[in-house]
Amino acid sequence: MLLLNFFKKKQKKKLILPSELIRQIVLHLKDDKKSLHSCLLVSRDWCRETVILLWRQPFHFLYTHNKINTSFFSRFKNPNNQCLCCSEEKRQYHAINLLKTYLLIKNDKEFVEKGIIKAENERITFNYFEFLCTLDLHELYCAIKDWNQWNKSNSKSDEGSNYSRLTFGSMIRYFFTNMPPKLEKLSLDTKFITYEINNTNFCSFLTEVDEYEDEEGIEYDYYDDYDDDDSYYYCYTWFNNCILEVLTKELQIPKNNQLFDNLTELVLTISENKRRLYFYLSQVCHNIQKLIIGGNFPGRYDDDAVIRQITLESKQLAALIRSQYNLVYLEIFGAPGMNIYEIFKCFDSQSNPLKTLIINNANISISISIILSSLKHLQNLQELRFNKCSCIRLMMYGIGIFNFKDNIYEEGLLLPNLKYLQVNCLDENEVIFKELCLRIAYILIRCSPSLDRSNIRFI
């Protein structure tokens, strides 16, 4: 009898894992949706840790399919790790559930009056805004688009007009009103650059959005900044991008400033002029550690209107960079020479913590001198890449960079921590400029005592 009681007591004792260990297990499964959904059913502790992870970036699984960390069983079903997007109907259904969950947290009067949600709804278990750390505006826009398409196709009206349309403007205002200041990453990556960097596959539905349209009919109020002669280049200003417009306006509201206190990563690869957005971000964001900037700049730079717009944007971007206390990663895509010139000028006035600097598809014809002279201020730099940077051959020969007797480019230049170097330059005909690649690499290798030959890539 005593022995039987002993075993009964043993059976009653349950193994309870500490929250820290559960959190690590759940984090390991961060890209395996099925396993995460199973974790929700284990216990209350497992449920909470899984919910926190799932709602950090809530629309991630709808539109992004990671090639890495797939589940054990999925490797047999999909050995080539191909992107397996869910059906359009299923994706729209999940998008509606996610957005509706957010809307039911506060029962906002605006959405009740429009008939988007009912005045009395079921109780929500968590305040999911508390877990939001990554806000991908492109994914949010696509989720809203899925919401509207689903409701339109399932409307009782034959013409599909008898439904309440959800707009991006109203949704982002709702988010900003209810979000705590925990946002770590803000992204508007229309070029899908971060997807490529992180080796992720994305749903083809994301690429179907060529232009952002808000059903509220936003009125643009920036015409006063441009002369009549600039109308031809309006496409480089604010053309048809409600996301950029709404975000810029929301940043002008003082109570929203605190939302960006903890922002550490910012990704902006939209084509439009981001001058005003840079200005307001530089006023409220000072803790950005990773900054990825890109744009589709006009092909012509011989017009005063275009040059003026690019210069103004470049100065505001430089101001944003200068206002950060701990920027360690900077990556730039598709910038003209004057843009690069302004950016590197801002490095001259401070001891910079930057560790990674990557310049992609930029024109360095008029800025190679300022680039090399400004590098001496980047004593913490560990990784430097020039990827498919363009220039004009005659201009490069004219500035004397190939004069090996003159060491002006090496004077005062020392990069004691540089460990990785990539130099890839093209001429005006998109032909590899071998001489320039070798010359830049030669200058930087001589000034980088920690640079290992195996970590040098050029041409």
Automatic annotation (TrEMBL):
Descriptive protein name: F-box domain-containing protein
Lineage, opening ranks: Eukaryota, Fungi, Fungi incertae sedis, Mucoromycota, Glomeromycotina
InterPro entries the record matches: LRR_dom_sf
